[in-house]
Amino acid sequence: MRATLLKETLKELYKTKRPVNVEGAPGGGKTTIAQQVASELGVGYIEKHTPTMLVEDFGVPDMATGDKSFGYKLPDWFPAEGTDTPDEGVLCFDDRDKCPIDIQKVLANVLQARTLHGVPLKKGWHCISTGNRQQDRAGANRVLSHLRNRETVLELETHLDDWTAWAIENDVKPEVISYIRFRPDALHDFDPQRDINSSPRAWVEGVSDVIGIVPADAEYECFKGAVGEGRGAEFVGFLKIHRKLPNPDSILMNPSQANVPDDPATLYALCGTLAHKATLANFDRVITYVGRMPKEFSVLCISYATRKNDELASSGAFTKWAVDNQDVLF
Fold first, then answer.
1. In CATH, which superfamily holds the domain spanning 3-155?
2. Is beta strand 124-131 parallel, antiparallel or unpaired with respect to 88-94?
3. Fewest beta carbons within 10 Å, which of 156, 199, 304, 314?
């Protein structure tokens, strides 16, 4: 299930409070989606990293009592009835695939009975678990059958357009976005037999976030260490093309006469640069220039620009461009 559909599905399942387990290859953004669901619903969010939890983290016997019987002292993170936690929220058990059997047994009761040692979970809270699949060889344990039967399992699939939209909204470097559009198979090239794999997380945290931070001579080593040797080398080559592009300001000064390259890699890089540079003041000139490119690159650049700045879609220049290109838009 692609990310946009998964997010909308989780929002609807939130109403039913049916427990959900989101599975997929490492680095796909499963936990981020759970966070976004809570944020967009405007509810509370609590995240627990289950592989590092002990059974005692879910409560211990409260022996400090003079009574003949005793109960449990619950953890402060549990959104129990009667506590000052928000009345509604998402309780995310992150990396649940890696937690031991004893923890799974506790979670089975939390998910089904919605209680912890007899204390009810607030009615407005929804449980979401995240994890990898056993075939990913990421240390996933076999899930107990009775726990699996108490939840709906949804598998996250990486989708280029969904990631692009997210990347634009979250200020991922245009060089990275342009490269991924140029090499879509590089976005999530996961093989459990390799030590290092490219993934959405690796491209953002290991590549985009370090561009301009580390010395130029160290870039390849850093990229290789994040997305693998082959992808790292190819991205360095793409980055060199990106950095040798003509000044976008010079292009926009004379968009009808400026040279239009014919190399696909250069066109992808230039589309990203111009989309990143587009404003209401210069958008008509951006459209004039990309209108001289092959149509697929023109559409790519304008789509990228309007996603980054939705005000551009209300401009007269965009309206005219959309009418001229309605055959590929509708």
1. P-loop containing nucleotide triphosphate hydrolases (3.40.50.300)
2. parallel
3. 314
